[in-house]
Model the fold of this input.
Amino acid sequence: MGADAAPAEPVLRAFLDTDERPVRHGTWRSVPADDALCGAARAALLAASGPPGGAT
Done:
């Protein structure tokens, strides 16, 4: 994604830094859902910081 994704980086970092997540609370799926969302946000940050097209 590279430089085109730069505007998303602060939003993703803020999402990961907050304690509150947009998952349903009080169910057994809350923790796995939170883990999945955080993993997706980390993957998006990694892709955004790399070169366009995912080339290394």
Observations:
- Residues 30-49 form the longest helix (20 residues).
- DSSP finds two helices and no strands in the chain.
